[in-house]
From TrEMBL:
This is Glucose-1-phosphate adenylyltransferase. Pfam families: Hexapep_GlmU, NTP_transferase. GO terms for molecular function: glucose-1-phosphate adenylyltransferase activity. Belongs to the bacterial/plant glucose-1-phosphate adenylyltransferase family. It comes from Paranoxybacillus vitaminiphilus. One of its GO terms (biological process) is glycogen biosynthetic process. Keywords: Glycogen biosynthesis, Nucleotidyltransferase, Transferase. Residues 251-319 form the Glucose-1-phosphate adenylyltransferase/Bifunctional protein GlmU-like C-terminal hexapeptide domain. Residues 18-147 form the Nucleotidyl transferase domain. InterPro entries: ADP-Glc_PPase, GlmU/GlgC-like_hexapep, NTP_transferase_dom, Nucleotide-diphossugar_trans, Trimer_LpxA-like_sf. Transmembrane segments: none annotated.
């Protein structure tokens, strides 16, 4: 029996509540967990589930996403047959914003027509978890379902499995059926299709707002949650960057924090996530914060409940404070000076 799947990652959605992290990038490319991007999780789950053909459908600000994924080598998707495919939407004015919009898929329908995989898995790009899709497919086949929707605590994770032939029929006949997305099909009970639910019981983080991004990032500092998400048997892959180990000076103090490689830590870091190649100056205290790649924090600064995007420079003596519900966000590539204390 053909139990192979092709993977479809719908990266077209834009969520206002994630600004300013999405001003220069799409949601799928948002940095997360010290060295990853959001798309790394769904893509790694697909690869760990034996999926060898993955199509990514981006729409907005996808240059950084393409730079991150490249040929797919780090996910073993740089193949002569199948592999990683990018299908950008040529029409930015499409009003339909549901995951799995058939109009987006129809513009690249040849991908589905040429695919030899019997089943298709459709996912969004901003749900963080570590799931075995083969287990979902097994249940889908055993229950003779037409579409299986993956849920967590009763809520949809916007992940769906169905036969590729059924997906093609829905794409091609959307004007007759009036179903514009896979979500429309699942929510309508007037058709004869058998819709099944699969309840996933592991750790899940849906990143759809700044406060959710901050809260779920801080959750990773709990060892039990970290172990659930980063299973050694089902690793999360990302773009490899060869950087030296982080250097800690004699004055450095680090408590309950995640610090990536290539950093220079001279100050105090507590309950925080520090990405690659970050510099923290002497006398600086960082608590409950997220500092992204290549940012430079000067000396004698105080940061609490702050999200600092990539390539930000915080000058000496700056104080920045937010709250757990409203973290203070500094945009990518900006300079925060002492006269701008907040």
């Amino acid at each position: 029996m053909n139990k192979t799947m092709l993977g479809v990652i719908d990266a077209t959605k834009y969520i206002d509540a994630l600004e300013p992290l999405t001003i220069n990038r799409c949601i799928a490319a948002i940095p997360f967990a010290g060295r990853y991007r959001l798309i790394d999780f769904v893509l790694s789950n697909m690869v760990n589930s034996g999926i060898e053909s993955v199509a990514i459908f981006p729409k907005y600000q996808y240059r950084s996403l393409m730079d991150h994924l490249g040929s797919g080598k780090n996910w073993d998707l740089n193949r002569k047959r199948d592999g990683l495919f990018f299908f950008p939407s040529p029409d930015l004015n499409m009003p339909y914003d549901h995951i799995g919009a058939f109009e987006h898929f129809e513009q690249h329908v040849d991908y589905f027509l040429r695919s030899k995989q019997k089943y298709a898995l459709i996912c969004n790009s901003y749900t963080v978890c570590n799931i075995d899709y083969q287990m979902v497919l097994k249940r889908h086949i055993e229950n003779e379902c037409d579409i299986t929707e993956i849920r967590h605590q009763g809520k949809s994770l916007e992940m769906f499995i169905l036969e590729t032939s059924l997906l093609l029929d829905l794409i091609i006949n959307r004007n007759e059926t009036r179903y514009m997305s896979i979500v429309d099909v699942v929510r309508d009970h007037r058709h004869q299709l058998k819709i099944c639910d699969y309840e996933y019981c592991g750790y899940v983080a849906v990143i759809d707002s700044i406060d959710n991004y901050f809260a779920h990032s801080m959750e990773l500092l709990h060892p039990m949650i970290w172990k659930q998400l980063f299973d050694k048997l089902r690793p999360i892959y990302t773009k490899v960057k060869d950087e030296p180990p982080t250097k800690y000076t004699g004055e450095a103090v680090v408590k309950n924090s995640m610090i990536a490689n290539g950093c220079m830590i001279e100050g105090h870091v507590e309950n925080s996530i520090i990405f690659r190649a970050v510099k923290v100056g002497k006398g600086t205290v960082i608590k409950n914060s997220i500092i992204m790649q290549k940012s430079q924090i000067g000396e004698n600064c105080e940061l609490d409940c702050v999200i600092i995007d990539k390539d930000v420079k915080v000058e000496n003596g700056v104080t920045l404070r937010g709250t757990a519900r409203q973290p203070f966000v500094i945009r990518k590539g900006t300079v925060q000076g002492a006269l701008m204390n907040l």
